[in-house]
Amino acid sequence: MDAATPAALETQLRQLTAVLERLAHVRAELVPAAATFWRGQARETYDRAVRDVDGEIGSTLDLVRFAQQNTLLALAEELRRA
Amino acid sequence: MPDGLDVSGGTSAVSTEDLDCAADQLRRLATEAGAMSAELARLEVPSSHGVFYGDQARVDIELATARLAEIAHRAEMLQVVLRTAAQGYVVSERIVSAGVRGLQESAAQWVGSRVPGWLVTSGLVVSMAGGLWAGIRAAGGLGGVLGTPFDKDGVPRASPFLREHNYLINNATTVSAIRAIAQATGPFVLGTMGMPAGTSPLLGARSFELGAKAIVAQGRSLGLFDETPVRLVETRSLPVIGPPQDYVDRLARIPYFEHESGPQVMIEKYSVSGEPDRFSVYVGGTVTFSPAATTEPWDMTSNMLNATGAESGSVASVRAAMLAAGVDEGSPVQFTGYSQGGGTAARLAASGIYNTQGLTTFGGPTGQVPLPDAFPVVIVEHSDDPVPALGGEQDNTSAVLVRRDVFGGTNLPHTYGVPSHHIEYYLQTARLMDESGSPQLDATLEKLDQFTAGATLGSSTTYRFERSD
């Protein structure tokens, strides 16, 4: 086993954790609330677009979580092999 | 907006502020997402050496990197579209609104110019209306078709026929037509006077007032709409509760009596240490629809005089009540009104006589009362309620306007002739407003509440007025 691998995986894990926290914060703070300034079709279209962005962020959070878990498992496997 | 509330307006500055805030959030979101995408792309994912989880993590990271780049792109596009569309929306709405209004008013003025002047000035039109009114009363209500729509004092009584077919007037289409006709009356009168085409839009709210003045002038030739002095006949102290908590509480404090006369005004006096006393003035709705003045100042004469901009019996009564309560020109005042009380409160708030700090109206004919934007204003109108429509088009764009189509033209209760105007349904709307979570409504309520923040409610007094001649 490459001795640098566990260290690289640990770095990867830390960075993924940081991205996870940062993205969760972005979702909470920077996704706009539903529009109150328009009416009718314009408002519906805008609100739908914002909801889509929010959904994208949600699925990206899931991906980063999976990456984090898989990195953790990979690290455990590397350490076990060592 | 849930539950059928349509909340719009607030000052354009507030709307722009909301738009800017949303666009700014999206811009920052785009920056953040782009930065995180770049960060993940820079990540040196170690070789997995056949470890399954390592391979899986690599795939997840690559996908997340692409997704974040996509989010950044969409958020950036959305903020650009938001800013551009917002500007276009405001501009186009104003152009379309002004264009449609201009066409309607020009048409009305043109029609008026084709009506023989003698027909209008002879009072024939109003004579017919007055005759119809007298006939209805004398005959006990159109031979039993409409029933007896008014009792001896003109207090409205919906006949079984009217209640059964109340969908005819309690629907958004009819109400829109009423609003257009009310708005067109002024231009029509200008046309009959031979004023050149295009003058009506130049007059703004004055055009509407001119139409009302023409009707009042003609009515007076028949003894209708004659304004009289008013006198205070009764004051009564109420138990002191505390400042209003929400929109429902505000509406519920307005004096209201079903099928009888009672106090028309309630004034709460608040004290704040080291500051002048402040007052909340609550004004009730029309009591009688009689166009001939009886003893009741909350009548059609006051409704018509309110439309002209002149001092009506109801406006004079509220002014007298305020004087009796100790309100002077410097006293901070907040007005709340329902139905005619809404129009009366709007007139007083717009008069500039008082140190007005807020106005809330429910079902009032306020459209052509030019309200300043110096204080928070909430105007509540049911889209299927004909009464606010009698005030013409709602031109107070700096106010927060709440509209709700209560029945949608179907399944109307037959308890009332005009259920869409009944206070029961405005209380329902007020409850929806309180529960809506609308930032505009919540922010405006907060401003209205600041009026009594830290203040102590000293007295609550009702006032009843009568016409004296």
Notes on the structure:
The complex is a heterodimer of chains A (about 80) and B (about 475). Chain A has one domain (about 5-80). By secondary structure, chain A is mainly alpha-helical. Chain A has helices at about 5-30, 40-80. In chain A, α1 (about 5-30) runs antiparallel to α2. The longest helix of chain A is centred in the last third of the chain and has 42 residues, at about 40-80. In chain B, a hairpin with a 6-residue loop joins β3 (about 265-270) and β4. By secondary structure, chain B is an alpha/beta fold. Chain B starts with a strand and ends with a strand. Helix content of chain B is about 50%, strand content about 15%. At the A-B interface, α1 and α2 of A face β1, α1 and α2 of B.
Fold topology:
The complex is a heterodimer of chains A (82) and B (469).
Chain A: H1 4-30, H2 40-81
Helix pairs in contact in A: 1-2
Chain B: E1 5-9, H1 12-42, H2 52-114, H3 117-121, H4 124-138, H5 160-164, H6 172-192, H7 199-203, H8 205-220, E2 230-238, H9 247-252, E3 265-271, E4 278-283, H10 300-308, H11 313-325, E5 332-338, H12 340-350, E6 355-362, E7 377-382, H13 386-389, E8 400-404, H14 423-435, H15 439-450, E9 456-467
Parallel strand pairs in B: 4-5, 5-6, 6-7, 7-8
Antiparallel strand pairs in B: 1-8, 2-9, 3-4, 3-9
What's a concise summary of this model?
The complex is a heterodimer of chains A (82) and B (469). Chain A has 82 residues and is mainly α.
Query: Mean pLDDT of chain B, as a whole number?
Result: 81
Q: What is the overall shape of chain A?
A: rod-shaped
Q: Count helical runs of chain A.
A: 2
Structural class of chain A: mainly alpha
Radius of gyration of chain A: 19 Å
Question: What order do the helices and strands of chain A follow?
Answer: HH
- Strand tally of chain A is 0
Q: What percent of residues of chain B are in strands? A: 5-15%
N-C termini distance of chain B? 49 Å
Q: How much strand of chain A? A: under 5%
SS-based class of chain B: alpha/beta
Radius of gyration computed on alpha carbons of chain B: 28 Å
Largest sheet of chain A, in brief, is: none
- Mean pLDDT of chain A comes to 87
Q: How much helix is in the residues of chain B?
A: 40-55%
